[in-house]
Each structure stands twice: as structure tokens, then as C-alpha cells.
Amino acid sequence: MRRVWAILVAGVFLYFLIAQFLPIIPDFGNADMFLRVSFDIISKSTTSNYNVVEFKKSKDLEDGSANVVTSIVANYRAFDTLGEVTVLFCAAIGVGILASVLKPKRKIEFEEHRVLRISTGIIFPLILLFGVYIFIHGHLSPGGGFPGGTTIALGVLLLMLSNNEFKVTPVAKHIEQVAGAGYVVIGLMGLAIGGVFLMNFLPTGVVGNLFSGGVVPIVYILIGFKVGAELSSVVSDLREG
Amino acid sequence: MNLEFSWQLLREAIGYLLIGLGSFFYFLAGLGLLRMPDIYTKLQTSTKATTLGTFSIALGVGILDFSFLGKAILLIAFVALTYPVAGSVMLRSAYKNKAPACKETTIDECDGIANDNGGDVR
């Protein structure tokens, strides 16, 4: 049954890819990339219609996210970010395969250190909170999904260093799958509503508010979950292999 | 010259004094990292002095700007939780891996108990 569903989903995806995307790709040599990609940006006037950006007041500036880098990475270049996430996924698979294939199956044991164990119990929730803060506020302040997920994975590494019994359960892999699929689902929703894969279809709101930027914070939260779970399982694989 | 007493001036003086003290501690930490002979003394200067420097710089900024004081106290609490633990773990691993001490070292108080659990009471 799962196989049938997978084939159905892949078929729908391929249908959209072939029927919607391929006709809009022009023949080789005929594409005017200047008009296509950057003409709107380059010809945008900075002298007329110039408005000073005010935090918590301005509306609809680019896509409404205060962090311009995020508005590029998760909005214009969201497809590229999907590729980056896939690269990370491939790296995690490679580490997992290496760790299971390479011969010496010995577990690295760390010595008990009481000071480290007790203080990890205090610090780990703070690290988790900080990582979540980084990726939830990715569209407002420097940061985003990748640094936030890495912070969470470092917290997991600290737990591993301080406690020999700690294990990353397979739940991490499930979280990663759900988050990665959610990214693609958001892209398909953009395709269905706006006609472009990964389009920003939600209202962008006021610059500087938490609920602004349309689809950008959702994408970053998904990336944060995915990267955190992925790097945690990479660390766990490296330790157990 | 009429220097009248004001709380504002006193507050700024205390704040800048604390920031200067913290910078001085940071300077001492860097100097110790360069000048100390072996890893134990290097780690001792760097962790202790940077902990104190961070405390006093954060407190000084909090006193200069009262809206930052809560954040500064949180910062101090977090630094107090992390820096000494990091120093302890690094020193412990150095000792366990038998990092050489400088030749002026005369006494090793952890000699007997370190083989058990590094001096920890289980």
C-alpha cells in the first residue's frame, strides 16, 4: 500500500514537472536571462518611491522579512536551499553507511565526569531553547534554520559526552523525514496556489513582527527541525561506528 | 570648579570602572596564555580571568544602561554555569592524558586519587 502511495505521489509530481514546467523553459540559446532573473531588481528605483524602512511599521518590503539574507535564501532562492538540505541529507546517509559498513564495531566510551553531567542537565534545556529561538526568529535576526539546527545538535553532542547511556532514538530520523517532506509540501502548495514552486503564498505582514514574511518562517522552522535531527543522528552514527 | 554630586555621574563612573576592570582581566588572560609555561597554568589563567572579565564587563554595561541589567544578570549566570565546567573538563582531560607539567612543579595532589575518577566522589 505504501508503495502504491509513493508511486501515486511521484506520478503527480512528475505530471506537474512535465506539464507545467517544461513548456515554460525556452529553447537553448533563446532565453533572455537578464529579463527573467534580475531585470526587476536592477531596474528598481531607489530615488523615487523611496520609503524609509521602519521597524514594526513598514509593509511589504521585498517579502516582509527583516533579515534580507533570509528573504533571499528562503524566498528567491528557496529551491537552492532545498538542494542544500538534500546535500546535507546525502552526507548524513553517507556517514550512516560508513559507520555501519566499516568493520570495528566498538562503541566509544567516555569517562564519567560528575561536574560535566550535572551541569549538562542544567545547560541542555537552555541550549535547546536557544536553538529553537534562532530558527524561529530566522526571518527577523541573523541566524535561521541551519545555525539553529546545528546548535541543537551540539546540545545533543554534549549529552552524549556527559552520559554514556544516552542514545539518539530512531525518532530523530522520523522527525527529519517529516520535516523534509513538509518543505516539499510547502513548495507544492506554492505551486498549486501561486503557480510557481516554493512561491511565497501567505500574506507577508509587517516588517519586524514574529508573524511576517509569509512562508519564510515556516520553511526555516522545518529546516531547523531537519538539520537538528540530521546532525544529531550523524553524531550518534560517528560515535557508534 | 564646582563639581556637584549626582547619581548619574556616580553610576557612569562605576559602570566604566567595571568595564575597565573587565578589560584588564581579559588582558591578563591573554598575557597568561602567552607567558605561562605549561597547559595547566595556561588554562588556569585563561578560564579564571575570562570568567571574571566577562562578569565585570556585563555588570558594568548593565549599570550604565539599566534596561540591559536583566540580560546582564542572565549572561553572568550562564557564564558562571559554562566557563568553569569547560575549564574543568579541559584540565581533566589534559591530566588524564599525562600532559607534561613545567619543571617548577613540585607537588601533584591528584596523584593517588586521579586514577579512580579524577578526584570525583561517586
Describe what you observe in this structure.
The complex is a heterodimer of chains A (241) and B (122). Chain A is built from eight helices and no strands. Chain A has 241 residues and is mainly alpha-helical. In chain A, helix 3 packs across helix 4 and helix 7 runs antiparallel to helix 8. Chain A starts with a helix and ends with a helix. The model of chain B has no long low-confidence stretch (mean pLDDT 84). The termini of chain B are far apart. Chain B has four helices and no strands. In chain B, helix 1 runs antiparallel to helix 2 and helix 2 runs antiparallel to helix 3. Chain B has one domain. Chain B is mainly α. Classes of the chains: A mainly alpha (241), B mainly alpha (122). Chains A and B meet through helix 5 of A and helix 3 of B.
**Main sheet: strands, sense, barrel of chain B:** none
Radius of gyration of chain A: 22 Å
- Outline of chain A: flat
Number of helix segments of chain B? 4
Short description, anyone?
The complex is a heterodimer of chains A (241) and B (122). With 241 residues, chain A is mostly helical.
What key phrases describe this protein's structure?
heterodimer, A: 241 residues, mainly alpha, B: 122 residues, 4 helices
Write the layout of secondary structure elements.
The complex is a heterodimer of chains A (241) and B (122).
Chain A (H helix, E strand, L loop, with lengths): L1 H20 L11 H10 L25 H9 L1 H24 L12 H23 L8 H18 L8 H23 L22 H25 L1
Chain B lengths: L6 H29 L3 H26 L4 H28 L17 H4 L5
